[in-house]
């Protein structure tokens, strides 16, 4: 073992508890901001009967990054179950900067992959795990509610957009090897 690795490990052993405590406190504060943002949202149309799960932090396996996210469940105007995941994501595949994101999680299948024009409304997108993710950079100073509401507004339009009424509009490639989405339903 090199001297640098030994030094790194020694310092890590001494600082591990403090670092974990700091990360847990940080995650807790981001969870509170995310919870306040989704709980404070006034307009969910066309989503009906929305139920919001408490945000959770997760990630760090492989190259999929880390996130604090929540799951929102409801019903579409067509009577379909709808699952929306949203939150903050650090080191998402192919992304260097943290982002605020939103996507359909597992339902309805007809809108998991939808076309999003590049930069429409200032919002970007990518396709991963057979889903379209909408995202915005995290603003400075950190503010979640405004960007998240913009993403949710854009995402919810997909529930009754004409292009999504007959099935998915496939975009880009997909990554079949990675199957763990950011939100785990617990």
What is the secondary structure topology, with strand pairs?
Elements: H1 3-39, E1 48-52, E2 56-59, E3 66-75, E4 81-90, E5 99-104, E6 124-128, E7 131-137, H2 145-156
Helix pairs in contact: 1-2
Note down, in words, how this protein is organized.
With 186 residues, the protein is an alpha+beta fold. It has one domain (3-164). The protein is built from 2 helices and 7 strands. It has helices at residues 3-39, 145-156; strands spanning 48-52, 56-59, 66-75, 81-90, 99-104, 124-128, 131-137. Strands 1, 2, 3, 4, 5, 6 and 7 form a 7-stranded antiparallel beta sheet that branches.
**Strand residue percentage:** 25-35%
Instruction: Determine the number of helices (DSSP H or I, runs of at least 4 residues).
Output: 2
Topology as a string of helices (H) and strands (E): HEEEEEEEH
Structural domain count: 1
- Average pLDDT: 86
Radius of gyration (CA) equals 18 Å
Q: Which term fits the overall shape?
A: elongated
Strand-pairing-aware structural class: alpha+beta
Short description:
This protein has helices at 3-39, 145-156, and strands spanning 48-52, 56-59, 66-75, 81-90, 99-104, 124-128, 131-137.
């Amino acid at each position: 073992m090199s001297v640098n690795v030994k030094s790194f490990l020694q310092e890590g052993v001494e600082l591990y508890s403090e670092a974990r405590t700091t990360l847990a406190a940080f995650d807790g504060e981001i969870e509170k901001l995310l919870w306040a943002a989704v709980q404070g949202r006034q307009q969910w149309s066309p989503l009906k009967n929305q139920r919001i799960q408490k945000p959770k932090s997760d990630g760090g396996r492989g190259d999929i990054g880390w996130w604090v996210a929540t799951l929102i469940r409801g019903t579409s105007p067509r009577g379909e179950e709808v699952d929306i995941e949203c939150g903050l994501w650090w080191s998402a595949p192919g992304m260097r900067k943290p982002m605020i994101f939103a996507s359909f999680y597992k339902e309805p299948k007809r809108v998991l992959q939808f076309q999003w024009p590049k930069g429409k409304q200032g919002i970007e997108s990518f396709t991963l795990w057979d889903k379209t993710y909408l995202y915005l950079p995290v603003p400075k100073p950190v503010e979640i509610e405004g960007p998240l509401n913009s993403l949710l507004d854009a995402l919810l339009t997909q529930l009754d957009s004409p292009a999504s009424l007959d099935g998915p509009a496939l975009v880009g490639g997909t990554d079949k090897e990675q199957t763990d989405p950011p939100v785990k339903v617990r």
